[in-house]
Amino acid sequence: MHVLVLGGDGFCGWPTALYLSDRGNDVTIIDNLSRRAIDIELEVESLTPIRPLSERLRVWKETSGRQIEFINLDLATEYDRLVDVLTRLRPDAIVHFAEQRAAPYSMRTPRTKRYTIDNNARSTHNLLAAMVATGTDAALVHLGTMGVYGYGWSGSAPIPEGYLTVKVPTPDGDLEREILHPANPGSVYHLTKTIDQLMFAFYAANDQLRITDLHQGIVWGTQTPQTIRDERLVNRFDYDGDYGTVLNRFLMQAAIGHPLTVHGTGGQTRAFIHIRDTVRCVEIALLNPPAAGSKPMVFNQVTETYRVRDLAKLVSNLTGVPVANLPNPRREDEENDLVVRNDRFLALGLEPTTLSEGLLDECTHVAARYRDRVDLGKIVCRSVWRAGMATAEDLLTELPDESRPVAEPAAAN
Ligand code: NAD
Ligand code: USQ
């Protein structure tokens, strides 16, 4: 199969491109390297030393014998070039990771809010319009988010995979309808994913595009069997206050003896998946596309749910690093339940990697190994959701003295 991996230089896209290449597919990465540019803007680097993309691709060819092509293209602004690429390559499948994906970055300033909407909505729409214009009948797999459902909307009722059956009262009795689950985004970034959903529904109905939307939870972990083959293939590991996701941040913090930065009570329950399972799920979705004319197929791409404070406790017990409860810079419920259906992936053969298997390995082999690269000034989240909420400075001064970073990193025990 010829697969285009849009956003193939990113945290999820890079290991997916390698995995699909390793499985015998012809892979072309399309990326505008904007994520690397945002690192420069935020003056932060991945905890793991990621190599330039040309070097990554050269090393992959040396270690696997397989070639991955790269096209530097901005999906949001270079529509005509995208049309040319689709016309020339005639892909069998397209995986779409290419969006600005950090909620805190999307809430940072009016500029980053606008950039996130412009980049994400235009990228997705350009892709759909270009597929129709070029008659590209590829299976399209998009990386969406669990955050489209919101948290706590349905209490302890399980979140279905994308659609909800509702009853509409009429004078002749109730009509049963299946509708997209109501959207309840918690950030401008999450809002873009709810806009994507509507575009997918429209293009699947109007143009018979075959679309799968993966509502993925928070990805943790770093390496896959492919990225671990050579240090120059290492995957990125974001730890900063904007791009670092919660569990990877706790692992990095434990490795340097920084108190674990729990926002608020830590009662927020979220869904998680290991990066190794992300790449497998994408392949499963590619191999099981919906039929032309069907509505977009939605999979909940999650394997476990945890409360943030329970994750912190788990990491703290493993490493001896204390937990610090900071004022929550976000606007979110202090406590929520989250029960998620993920029957589809399990039925199609996914065998999940659980926290209990992978956590110690990540602590010792990744976070501890690269701890000298941490910039302490980048750890606390600086983006706040509304004017008047605790500022970065407030957050920093709230950190109790006894919880400040220690010189000696804690060893995993
Ligand atoms: P990432 O930022 O590491 O990678 C995204 C890649 O897309 C980057 O390499 C970036 O340069 C590229 N890109 C962005 N805009 C582009 C454009 N206009 N044109 C071309 N390339 C562009 O993000 P990630 O963590 O790999 O996430 C990938 C996808 O998965 C995102 O859509 C994200 O919303 C989704 N997702 C991620 C997580 C997670 O925990 N990381 C969880 C759920 C869903
Ligand atoms: N949190 C802390 N301490 C921290 C960092 C985060 O308590 O140091 C809390 C946050 O307040 C939030 C939760 O942990 O309640 C999750 O935050 P996160 O940054 O790990 O995840 P989120 O902002 O939701 O975004 C990430 C990815 C995004 C993806 C989403 C999946 O960046 O691309 O869509 O996870 S989901 O959360 O399921 O919507």
Structure description:
The chain has helices at residues 13-22, 34-42, 53-64, 79-89, 103-106, 110-134, 188-207, 246-256, 275-287, 308-319, 343-347, 355-367, 392-398, and strands at residues 2-6, 26-31, 68-72, 93-96, 139-145, 163-170, 173-180, 211-216, 218-220, 260-263, 269-274, 297-301, 304-307, 323-326. The chain is an alpha/beta fold and 413 residues long. The strands form four sheets. It has a seven-stranded parallel β-sheet with strand order 3-2-1-4-5-8-12, sandwiched between helices. The chain is globular and about 55 Å long. The N and C termini lie far apart (45 Å). Residues 101-103, 145-147, 217-218, 245-246, 249, 261-263, 266, 268, 270-271, 308, 328, 330, 332 line the site of sulfoquinovose-uridine-C1,5'-diphosphate (USQ).
Describe the secondary-structure layout:
Blueprint: E1 2-6, H1 13-22, E2 26-31, H2 34-42, H3 53-64, E3 68-72, H4 79-89, E4 93-96, H5 103-106, H6 110-134, E5 139-145, E6 163-170, E7 173-180, H7 188-207, E8 211-216, E9 218-220, H8 246-256, E10 260-263, E11 269-274, H9 275-287, E12 297-301, E13 304-307, H10 308-319, E14 323-326, H11 343-347, H12 355-367, H13 392-398
Parallel strand pairs: 1-2, 1-4, 2-3, 4-5, 5-8, 8-12, 9-11, 10-14
Antiparallel strand pairs: 6-7, 11-13
The protein binds nicotinamide-adenine-dinucleotide and sulfoquinovose-uridine-C1,5'-diphosphate (USQ).
